[in-house]
């Protein structure tokens, strides 16, 4: 993850707050987060995570196909094993690991 650059924007704060609420053993994709918040898109969420995501459970944010964050696969997989995140090979099992958010 990149080092922090200034204070997070209001959108970034909403992304980070949501990531902090993802339960142990669960994941959300970048697109899931944007859809849940009703703003931005996967790339905007990815940018927030790249800049400010080091202080939140970043390993719970994945690509749409369940792959871990590029360049951080080893620590991500270690966190998933520790949290017993449902997996298929070296991907999160999106059928079983996807968190729908706490508003449903």
Commentary on this structure:
- The structure is a single chain.
- The protein is mainly α and 104 residues long.
- Helix content is 44%, strand content 8%.
- The chain contains five helices and four strands.
- The chain has a two-stranded parallel ribbon.
- The termini are far apart.
- The mean pLDDT is 93.
Topology:
Elements: H1 10-21, E1 28-29, H2 30-37, H3 42-52, E2 61-62, H4 73-83, E3 87-88, E4 91-92, H5 94-97
Parallel strand pairs: 1-2
Antiparallel strand pairs: 3-4
Overview features:
two-stranded antiparallel ribbon; mainly alpha; two-stranded parallel sheet; 8% strand; single chain; 44% helix; 104 residues
Short description:
The chain is mainly α.
Strand content: 5-15%
Shape estimate: globular
Terminal CA distance reads 31 Å
Based on the structure, what is the oligomeric state of the protein chains? single chain
Derived from helix and strand composition plus strand pairing, the structural class reads mainly alpha
Number of helices: 5
Task: Give, in order, the helices and strands.
Answer: HEHHEHEEH
Q: What's the β-strand tally?
A: 4
Largest sheet: 2 strands, parallel
Poorly predicted regions are: none
If you average the pLDDT, what whole number results? 93
